[in-house]
Predict the structure.
Amino acid sequence: MRAKIIAVDFDGTLIEEGKWPGIGATNEKVLDYCKSEQAKGARIILWTNRVGEPLKAAVKWCENNGLRLDAVNENLQESIDFFGFNTRKIYADEFIDDRMAKGFDLPYVTEAEQRLEDLPQYHIDRDVMCKIVAETVGYERLMDAFDHGTVICDSFAWFRNSDEFYIIHLDSGMMVNWYKHLGRTNTCSQANRTVEDYRTFFTLFKKELDYWGKV
């Protein structure tokens, strides 16, 4: 009987999402499963969109973490021999990917990211949020603020976590976040916040950005 073939993704699967071209935290659940199956005879194909140096880094990561790769974005020779040609689609018995492998709780998030996700979320209407931001900070100015990584100033802290954007008012603890772009899943970490609370939040944030831009 032939060995099982497992094709496993890298970003968001073997490691956390959002660190490309770098490498973030390890998803021990997926790594341990692949190594366990490999010990039973399974063949492992690294199945990733990475190319060039980022791909080399991923392959090196697998080597350093004890995961021996039988192929990288290629079919195994035994599969080519079986079909009589090299199929465009990677042939495997199992595909582990953050877009499909729900059994591994994918896409993988770190413990810190999970704590953020577990916070209570109180929705604000998309149009209301867009209007407030347009009239206070301005969308482009807001996006520019996240190009500087994690920033902590006198009254605010802001950072990007993968495709989510967070702004925290340090004094009140009020946190506003949205997913991928303004207007989608706009939420706040505190209940009973009014439209004026949001307006005050972003007005104060604009003042912080103005000051931060001068230092």
Q: What stands out?
A: The chain has a mean pLDDT of 86. Residues 113-212 form one domain. The longest strand covers residues 156-161.
